[in-house]
Amino acid sequence: MITLYSLAPSGNAQKVRMALRFLGLVFEEVQLTGGAHKRPPFTDLKPLGQVPVLVDDEVVLRDSQAILVYLAAAYRPGEWDGYDAAERGRIAHWLSLAADEIAQGPNRLRLAALFGVTIDPIAAAARTKRALDLVERQLEASGWLEGGRLTIADLACAPYLALRPQGGVDLGAYSNVRAWTARVAALPGFPVMTGWGA
Fold first, then answer.
1. Residue ranges, CATH 3.40.30.10, the chain
2. What local confidence, expressed as pLDDT, does residue 37 receive?
3. Topology given in CATH for the domain delimited by 2-75
C-alpha cells in the first residue's frame, strides 16, 4: 500500500500527487493539518518536519525530487527518467532547477504572499526570472522539458511555476510556460489544486 503524507497547499506534495495519479497507482493520502507535520509521529518519518513523505511498503522517501526519481524507476522506467545516461543527466538538471531556482524563486514569493514568510523579494524575483527564462526557452523547441514527452522533469518544475500567480508573478512574456502548465493540468488524472494557473 502506498501512502502519501502531504499538505494541501504544498507544491512539492502536488509533484508527487501528480506522479501517483498519472501512473494510475492506488494510494492513500494523509493530509497533515494543525501542525501535525512538525511533531511526532510524523517527524519520526521526516525529522525536518516537511512534506511530502511517501511510504511504498518498506520504502520510505522524504524529498519530492527523490520520490519522483523512485516512482519513475519503479513504475515508468526510461519513459519518465530517461532512456540513456545523457537523457537522465538532462532530466537531473531540471530536478536541480526545481530544488534551487524554482524553490528559492516563485515558491518563496508564494510563501511570502500566502503565509507571511520573510524573504528577500529582490533575490526571489531574480531567481524567478532566471528560472522562467530558462524554461521558456526550452519549451520553444518542444512541449515538454526533455525528450518531447512528459518526464519527471515536468513534474518537478511545473507546480511552483503554475502556482506563481499566488506569489504575484506575471507570465505575460512567458506564453510557452503558460501553455505547458495548462497542458500538464489537462492530462488524465490531474489532481486539481487551488491556484494552479489562476
1. 2-75
2. 63
3. Glutaredoxin (3.40.30)
- Residue ranges matching CATH 1.20.1050.10 in the chain: 85-185
List pLDDT tens digits, range 89-117. Answer: 999 999 999 999 999 999 999 999 999 99
Distance CA 156, CA 98 (A): 6
Cell numbers placing 189? 488524472
In the structure grid, which three cell numbers stand for residue 24, read together? 494510475
In this prediction, residue 40 carries a pLDDT of 76
* pLDDT tops 80 at residue 41: no
For residue 63, give every residue at least 6 positions away whose Cβ sits within 8 Å of its Cβ, in sequence order, or none.
none
Q: What is the pLDDT of residues 157-177, one digit of tens each?
A: 999 999 999 999 988 899 999
Write the single-letter amino acid at 89.
G
5-41 burial code (b ≥16 CB/10 A, e <16) = bbbebbbbbbbbbbbbebbeeebebeebeeebbeeee
10 Å CB burial of residue 62 (0-12, 13-18, 19+) is: middle
> Mean pLDDT, the chain, as a whole number?
93
- 85-185 domain in CATH 1.20.1050.10? yes
d(CA 125, CA 103): 12
